[in-house]
């Protein structure tokens, strides 16, 4: 639980850096690793000892090439101080899309490692308005869900399938494990990491309120002053929350839950 | 016309809520009951009142699109009952909490409880309570 709270805190800080670029360093002199940030988006995250892992991920996309070929390119990049991933794309070993997937995967794995231990002091090293101009950047919320998928793949898969029914423009939703200490395992829609965390905390409070009734609630609906509908339901030890401005969403949730055995 | 007979007034407006089992007009911050509906003893209303109070007194406020959201109503399906908690738009310290059987649909329970709250706001004089 501490690890994922660390992760939320770190990514909320990333989201807060929305006008600058720089490195969010873990530990003195970034000796444990860091997150390269471009205006609130993640370019890449790396943890100490995870460099080799990136090579493994990249090479998994270039399975048709030999280890010797890969090592040759790697050495050439080291000598010339060029980017390995970019070179692999330019020389046809992997596609740009595969490079993007690799960087995102490696960032998620690195974040899992960085946030696992007790919280380091984080140091922000700004590049000001000088960006890294990376080829790819990732929303913190996407990398956050990637980390959740790595740590709880079955729950992530189950939750993602259930939420997919309700994914539509103008809606957001998430699924949480952990009961009274909700941990997001899947999400969709335009939400920040903070909003996903907040939605779970708020929904868990409602769970506590329903316990006063002496019977476990299977469904709860809240209406906001601005007219949004928040539907919450509990299924297979997961709490699902969908927020929609359109009334059809509530009908879909009710129809779906009504069809369940 | 405002009435100070709160129990009778709340009972009358709640009659239209289908499948009503019990209800209470609640003063939220302290969670005390201003009027009860149904045949239950006041102690039997306690779970309903506590649930209503907890719903609207949670320390974490919902944030969507960067803005804190106020909740105006809750509906919960628990066991064989539907529970609706309607917050007054005139005085947000007031809430109408009702428990209904599940034989009627959720839309009915929500719609009629909204109407009931409006009627309470229009017809019940709470000045004797200092409200």
Architecture blueprint of SSEs:
The complex is a heterodimer of chains A (261) and B (131).
Chain A: H1 2-16, E1 21-26, E2 33-38, E3 41-47, H2 51-61, H3 67-80, H4 84-90, H5 96-116, E4 122-128, H6 140-151, H7 153-164, E5 171-177, E6 183-188, H8 193-211, E7 217-224, E8 229-235, E9 238-244, H9 247-259
Antiparallel strand pairs in A: 1-2, 1-4, 2-3, 5-6, 5-9, 7-8, 8-9
Helix pairs in contact in A: 1-5, 2-5, 5-6, 6-7
Chain B: H1 6-14, E1 20-27, E2 32-37, H2 46-56, E3 63-64, E4 67-68, E5 71-78, E6 81-87, E7 94-101, H3 106-123
Antiparallel strand pairs in B: 1-2, 1-7, 3-4, 5-6, 6-7
Summarize the structure.
The complex is a heterodimer of chains A (261) and B (131). Chain A is built from 9 helices and 9 strands.
Can you characterise this structure?
The complex is a heterodimer of chains A (261) and B (131). Chain A is of the alpha+beta class and 261 residues long. Chain A is 48% helix and 23% strand. Chain A has 9 helices and 9 strands. In chain A, helix 2 packs antiparallel against helix 5 (96-116). With 131 residues, chain B is an alpha+beta fold. In chain B, strand 1 and strand 2 form a beta hairpin. In chain B, helix 1 (6-14) runs antiparallel to helix 3. The longest helix of chain B has 18 residues, at 106-123. The two termini of chain B are 17 Å apart. At the A-B interface, helix 8 and strand 7 of A face helix 2, strand 3 and strand 5 of B. Strand 7 (217-224) of chain A pairs antiparallel with strand 5 (71-78) of chain B, so a sheet runs across the interface.
Q: What gyration radius of chain B follows from the Cα positions, in whole Å?
A: 14 Å
Distance between the ends of chain A: 32 Å
Write down the secondary-structure element order of chain A: HEEEHHHHEHHEEHEEEH
Which stretches of chain A of 5+ consecutive residues score pLDDT under 50?
A: none
Order of SSEs of chain B, N→C? HEEHEEEEEH
Shape of chain B: globular
The pLDDT mean of chain A sits at: 87
Number of distinct helices of chain A: 9
């Amino acid at each position: 639980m501490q690890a994922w709270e660390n992760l939320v805190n770190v990514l909320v800080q990333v989201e807060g850096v929305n006008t600058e670029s720089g490195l969010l360093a873990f530990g003195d002199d970034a000796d444990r690793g860091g997150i390269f940030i471009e205006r609130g988006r993640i370019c890449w995250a790396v943890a100490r000892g995870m460099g080799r892992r990136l090579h493994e991920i990249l090479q998994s996309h270039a399975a048709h090439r030999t280890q010797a070929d890969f090592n040759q390119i790697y050495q050439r990049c080291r000598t010339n101080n060029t980017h390995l991933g970019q070179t692999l794309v330019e020389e046809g070993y992997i596609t740009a899309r595969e490079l993007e997937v690799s960087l995102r995967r490696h960032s998620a794995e690195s974040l899992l490692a960085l946030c696992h231990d007790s919280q380091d002091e984080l140091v922000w090293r700004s590049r000001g308005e000088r960006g890294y101009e990376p080829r790819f950047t990732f929303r913190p919320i996407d990398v956050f869900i990637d980390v959740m998928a790595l740590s709880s793949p079955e729950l992530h898969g189950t939750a993602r399938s259930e939420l997919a029914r309700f994914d539509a423009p103008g809606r957001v939703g998430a699924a949480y494990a952990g009961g009274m200490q909700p941990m997001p395992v899947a999400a969709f829609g335009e939400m920040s990491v903070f909003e996903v965390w907040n939605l779970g905390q708020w929904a868990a409070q409602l769970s506590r309120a329903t316990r006063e009734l002496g019977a476990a609630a299977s469904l709860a609906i809240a209406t906001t002053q601005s007219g949004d509908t928040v539907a919450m339901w509990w299924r297979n030890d997961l709490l699902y929350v969908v927020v929609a401005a359109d009334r059809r969403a509530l009908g879909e949730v009710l129809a779906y839950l009504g069809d369940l055995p | 016309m405002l009435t100070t007979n709160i129990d009778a007034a709340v009972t009358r407006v709640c009659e239209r809520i289908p499948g009503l089992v019990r209800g209470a007009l609640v003063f939220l911050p302290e969670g005390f009951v201003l009027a009860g509906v149904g045949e239950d003893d006041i102690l039997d209303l306690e779970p309903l009142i506590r649930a209503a109070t907890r719903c609207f007194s949670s320390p974490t406020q919902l944030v969507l699109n960067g803005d804190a959201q106020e909740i105006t109503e809750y509906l919960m399906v628990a066991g064989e009952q539907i529970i609706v908690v309607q917050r007054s738009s005139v005085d947000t310290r007031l809430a109408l909490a009702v428990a209904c059987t599940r034989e009627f649909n959720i839309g009915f329970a929500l719609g009629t409880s909204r109407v009931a709250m409006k009627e309470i706001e229009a017809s019940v004089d709470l000045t004797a309570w200092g409200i």
